[in-house]
Design a protein that fits this description.
141 residues; mainly beta; OB fold (Dihydrolipoamide Acetyltransferase, E2P); two-stranded antiparallel ribbon; 9 strands; globular
C-alpha cells in the first residue's frame, strides 16, 4: 500500500495560465507559495522565514474555476498528489519538474477582497458561489 497526497495552504504567485487542449479540456497552471515563519533559537540565532514554491496544475472544472476567480495574491487550499516529469529543453539539457496535480481547491481569500476583484472584472462574487469545489465539478456536500 502507498499514499501520494499533498495538502497546501498558500498564496498564488501569478494569475493562472489557462489553456485548452484540442478536445476542449481546460488546464490551468500557477505557482503557489507556502511560508514557514522565522524564529529565534534559545542561543539567539535567527532562523529566517522560508518560502517554498509549488507548481500547481488544475484540470477541467477546477481549471475553469481558477480562470474566472483565482488571482495573484489569493490564498488557496490545494489538495492533490505530487507528480514528477522530465523533458529536454531547447538546448537538449534534461530538465526535471515536480508538480502538484490538484483534486480539490478551496478559495480562502476574504470575500470582500475577491468580490472587489470580481466586480472589476464584471463577474459575480465568489462569495455568492460555494467556495469549495472538488475536481469532479460537484459541490462537496
Amino acid at each position: 500500500m502507498s499514499l501520494n497526497k499533498v495538502m497546501l495552504i498558500g498564496n498564488v504567485g501569478r494569475d493562472p495560465d489557462v489553456r485548452y487542449l484540442d478536445n476542449g479540456v481546460a488546464v490551468a497552471t500557477f505557482p503557489l507559495a507556502t511560508s514557514e515563519r522565522g524564529y529565534r533559537l534559545q542561543n539567539g540565532t535567527e532562523v529566517p522565514e522560508r518560502t517554498e514554491w509549488h507548481n500547481v496544475v488544475l484540470w477541467r472544472g477546477l481549471a475553469e474555476t481558477a480562470e474566472k476567480y483565482v488571482h495573484k495574491g489569493d490564498k488557496l487550499y490545494i489538495e492533490g498528489k505530487i507528480r514528477s516529469r522530465s523533458y529536454d529543453d531547447q538546448n537538449g539539457v534534461k530538465r526535471y519538474v515536480t508538480e502538484v496535480f490538484a483534486d480539490n481547491m478551496e478559495m480562502l481569500t476574504a470575500a470582500s477582497r475577491s468580490g472587489a476583484q470580481a466586480a472589476q472584472a464584471g463577474e459575480p462574487s465568489p462569495a455568492a458561489q460555494k467556495q469549495a469545489i472538488n475536481g469532479k465539478g460537484d459541490l462537496p456536500f
